[in-house]
Amino acid sequence: MDQKRMMDVFHFYQWRILCFTLLLYTVDGQIRYTIPEELKEGSVVGNIAKDLGFGLSDISDRRLRIASDTGKQYFHIDLGRGELTVHERIDRETLCSQTVPCLLPIEVIAENPLQLYRIEIEIQDVNDNSPTFQSHERILNIPENVNPGAKFPLDKAEDPDVASNSLRSYSLSNNDNFKLNVKNQDGKKIPELVLDKYLDREKQAVHKLILTAVDGGNPVKTGTSEIVITVLDINDNSPQFEKSFYEGSIDENTTPGTEVIRVKAIDLDEGLNGEVEYFYGEQSTDATRELFDINLETGVISVKGQLDHEKSNLHTFDILAKDKGSPRMEGHCSVKIKITDVNDNAPEIVITSLTSPIPENSPVGTVVALISAKDADSGENGKVKVEVASNSPFKLNHSLSNHYMLVTNAHIDREVHSQYDIQLNAVDLGSPPLSTKKTISISISDTNDNPPVFTQKSYVVYVKENCPPGSMLSSVSAQDPDVEKNAQISYSILGSTSQEFPVSSYVYINSDNGSIFSMHSFDYEKIKVFQFLVQAKDQGTPSLSSNATVHVFILDQNDNVPAVIYPSLAMGSVSHQRMPRSAKMGHLVTKVTAVDADSGHNAWISYRLAEATDSSLFAVNLYTGEVRTKRSVSEQDDASQRLLIEIKDNGEPVQSTTVTVDILIEDGLHEPISDFRQKATERDKKNSKLTFYLILALASVSMLSLLTFFILLIKCARGTRGSPSCCLRRNSDGYKNPNRNLQIQLNTDGPIKYVEVLGGDMMSQSQSFGSYLSPMSEFSDLTLVKPSSTLDFKDTLRGLDASLPDSAWTFECQQVSTIFSKHRTVHIFTQYVVCGLLTVVATFK
Ligand SMILES: *[C@@H]1O[C@H](CO)[C@@H](O)[C@H](O)[C@H]1NC(C)=O
Ligand SMILES: *[C@@H]1O[C@H](CO)[C@@H](O)[C@H](O)[C@H]1NC(C)=O
């Protein structure tokens, strides 16, 4: 500053040297001084005394002074030298403003004599003022879309200096967009700003320019003003997304409200023009709009609805970003959201076809059902495994993907399980896995695979003899585990185990309930036991059956009165016996022999002396029936004695009979011992004779049989073509051994000895020819004890019976022809011969 000041002073003195004494005389002779403004106080303007014509001595005498009516005393007269000096700073701009020339009149007064002088002082301009702007800053707001060429007036600068020192030009600082234009208006220079190039707020929002005003002084002085141009925003930018494509993925079970992705668009504009809002693009479907929500302001895309991978696994849509300018500008982006699968669907079991019921005899591998499994999930979550409980007789065969066949894996028995509830379990491979259970019911239909089974393998029935026909003997029953027709049982009698016994004429079975009824009353004495097969048969197709044996045992009832064999009462009701009067005590008078057709207790016979002429003389042995003397017979005893002997069995009720024995005591009779012996030898002879004849008879029979056999054989061999069956059947009868049916049995137990000629099998028991030998009887007794017979031969025997000593004897021969077939003629024949021979033997006796 000091330096500048110094320069100013230097300039000033230069100026003073040049112009200081510029003395002008005006036309009217007035004195005019010209001085620059702003002279220093004390600077000499001119020697006024000299110029007015005063001498040096006059100056003080005349008392020169400056008359001033105004307060300001710019000048002073130095009375010593007579010089006019600057008393006060003179500012031309203050005194004259823009008036040129700037004249300052002063009056100088001189006394002695008083004289008034007019002096003009011209104040010359000095460039002491810089151009100035009214304000240092000018603010302009220009929209960015204003076209180039637009003009904006600026403030003009003022410079109080005049002439060349006044304002000369303007200049503008360097910039890209604006030019300066200066126009002249009433001689004044007015600057204006001209837009040269388009503005871009986004490039430069504020421009700061310096406008400089320059004057014409030397040196020049300048003034500046700042122009601040704010570029006003125009919505000339659309929002731009950061990415044109956004991709996101989210699990399908995401809860609504969860953020998926965030899109962001930027708008370079400012204010509303730069505020962005987000919207769905117009093509977005309603489904998408329901599932996702876009935050208008933040661009956050969030889940709104219930996502379902199975419905749609990918959502693609556009998003618009719009600013709030006018008009609204918009930008686009596309969004792809993948819905990832979550194992949220349990597998489903579908029974495509089901066969129920299935028959129980279905072979292993029979297809029962077709099953398929579904799972709406994808990937592993959608893979399904179906299993069946391992303990059931079914298994699953995997056929195509997710298709299964349920087949039988084992033999199925309805009687064990009539119904199966098969539990299927489907599990997917997701994590965690989901599963579904399903039960299918399969019923098993019955097949007739079980025969009826009797509750017992064999039944034993005890029947009292003489039971009335039609009484129920027993009941058999069988069970069949099958159902319905397959379990409907009907009972029947198959027949006897031995073909000879016509069991169907003896018993009858109720086919519905298996009750067995008798058709006859049974006689123990004729048949003691028989057996037959019963069959239980179901109604299935084919039907099944099983057999059981029923053994019927006839229980003996005491229905037979003891029969007196000896003494025979055939001749009358009384038996006559003789004994010597010389008989001693213990003399065997006679022996009563009785038989009881019953058996067991019912046949235990006891003898009792019921009445006697002289009960002191005779006694009867309880068991043997021997009648003996209790004492020696005396002369006084009556010659004729009568005994009534009661014979009882041991049955319940007791059956009894009596026999009356008349005893004639004879005087002339010898001791009976020798007689007895003789009789015994006689009987031995008779017996040996009998045995001889018997052997002879058997030999003859054998011969005859053989002969007949050969004759028949030849006959059959000849007539083979005519009737081949005759030989074959004979063979099938097992007739090879004709002696099979002829057995001779000698029993010696009990008081009675007997010989039985037995048939070969059990049935033949009843056909036995029995020979009872009474050891103590005087006769050899041959008894043929037979069951009832219808044989004609019986009549013959009856005739024979009449000729025998005692009428109690029965000769019976089984009618065999009804049982034996015609092919057993030989057998019959043989029997006839035997019967005949026996008759001969009896006659011979
Ligand atoms: C079987 O049926 C007959 C005739 O209806 C009846 O008499 C009998 O008592 C029945 N038997 C059983 C064991 O019910
Ligand atoms: C039952 O007996 C009959 C006749 O003897 C026979 O044919 C059948 O095979 C027997 N059935 C069974 C199951 O034993």
Summarize the structure.
It is found in: Cell membrane. The protein is α+β, with helices and mostly antiparallel strands. Helix content is 15%, strand content 38%.
Record the SSE blueprint.
Blueprint: H1 2-19, E1 22-25, E2 31-36, E3 44-47, H2 48-52, H3 56-62, E4 65-67, E5 75-78, E6 83-86, H4 92-96, E7 102-110, E8 115-124, E9 132-133, E10 137-143, E11 151-153, E12 157-158, E13 167-172, E14 178-185, E15 188-195, E16 206-215, E17 222-232, E18 240-241, E19 245-251, E20 259-262, E21 265-266, E22 276-280, H5 286-291, E23 292-294, E24 300-303, E25 314-323, E26 330-340, E27 348-354, E28 358-359, E29 367-374, E30 384-388, E31 394-398, E32 403-408, E33 419-428, E34 435-445, E35 453-454, E36 458-464, E37 472-475, E38 478-479, E39 490-496, E40 507-509, E41 515-518, E42 529-537, E43 545-555, E44 563-566, E45 574-580, E46 588-591, E47 593-595, E48 606-612, E49 618-620, E50 626-629, E51 640-648, E52 656-666, H6 672-718, H7 725-732, E53 743-747, E54 753-758, E55 769-773, H8 793-803, H9 825-844
Parallel strand pairs: 2-8, 10-17, 19-26, 28-34, 36-43, 45-52
Antiparallel strand pairs: 1-2, 3-6, 4-7, 5-6, 7-8, 9-12, 11-15, 13-16, 14-15, 16-17, 18-21, 20-24, 22-25, 23-24, 25-26, 27-29, 29-32, 30-33, 31-32, 33-34, 35-38, 37-41, 39-42, 40-41, 42-43, 44-47, 46-50, 48-51, 49-50, 51-52, 53-54, 54-55
Helix pairs in contact: 6-9, 8-9
The structure holds 2-acetamido-2-deoxy-beta-D-glucopyranose (2 copies).
